Amino acid sequence: MVDQAYKDFDEDRTAIERTLDLMSQELTQRNAELRHELAQKQLVQDALIAEKNEQLALIKKLEEAHNQLLQSEKLASIGQLAAGVAHEINNPIGFVSSNLTTLRNYVNSFLEATAVYDGLMGDVSDAGRQQVAAMRAKLDLDFMKDDAVSLLEESAEGIRRVRQIVQDLKDFSHVDEAQWQWADLHKGLNSTLNIVNNEIKYVADVVKDYGLIPEVQCLASQLNQVFLNMLINASHAFKGKRGVITIRTGQLDGESVFVEIADNGCGMAPEVVGRIFDPFFTTKPVGQGTGLGLSLAYSIMKKHQGRIDVKSQVGEGTTFRMTLPIQQEEVLP
Ligand SMILES: Nc1ncnc2c1ncn2[C@@H]1O[C@H](COP(=O)(O)OP(=O)(O)O)[C@@H](O)[C@H]1O
Ligand SMILES: [Mg+2]
Fold this sequence. Notes:
Elements: H1 2-120, H2 126-139, H3 141-173, E1 181-183, H4 185-200, E2 204-209, E3 216-218, H5 220-236, E4 243-251, E5 256-263, H6 270-273, H7 293-303, E6 307-313, E7 317-325
Parallel strand pairs: 2-4
Antiparallel strand pairs: 1-3, 4-5, 5-7, 6-7
């Protein structure tokens, strides 16, 4: 009896053990499946994240392309407009300016004549002298004498400014009048520095950190214009505190070179940086800036299949980096 009971028990135990074994196998199997599923899900998730990042990068690229397109559209239309406006303004400016010179001579003659009359007043009767004095007082002639001269001077200054704007507009729209040539950028930088030396020498020291660069195929006079604008902008950035302008050049790879113009001046806030290449954008007082310098620089660099990068920090300074190919793939007209 007992024997039978032991036997049954043993059989039961074996059965239970087998079942447990089976269950454990099943569990391990299920576990492996779950792990696999999880890994699969992870893979899908990774792929989704990668795809999302790719899309974000694409959107960013699209935005950049869109901005560039906007920029060049704006430049093209502003260029046409500028050429027309400059042409139209040139004529009236010419005659106003020449008339002002003539008028100035006339006023000087009148002043000379009144001085002579003044000298002759001694020979005039008392009644006559009183009459002249009354007229002088009524017309405020003494004031007019001085003011006429300063009015003419102010007008001449106004015309000078308009001329400068017209010149900038012309430079801006006639960007294409030049020859492609192989040029030494250091020579260009040095001669440009000479031209602006007067603007710079009182406000900053210039440090030349020139690297070894080959001659570059370019529109040399136009690149000089870019350097000139950058240097003048830098010279305006010091606001009364003497600073340093550093000009750095170097070769990047076998194919391109860079020119950096850096200042330790006032720097720019990000929202200003975002607009500096817009035609007519300026933060300078009326008469000091036309807001065309950097948009001109931008279009010149674009024509060279180059680029301009800006780094700026308020209170620290600004660095403009022009990068351009040594040789043009295709010389644009
Ligand atoms: N080196 C610089 N430091 C600080 N601000 C600058 C610098 N260069 C350019 N800017 C800013 O960019 C604006 C546009 O420059 P630009 O196109 O040359 O026009 P403009 O010099 O006539 O104002 C300037 O008014 C100024 O605010
Ligand atoms: Mg400028």
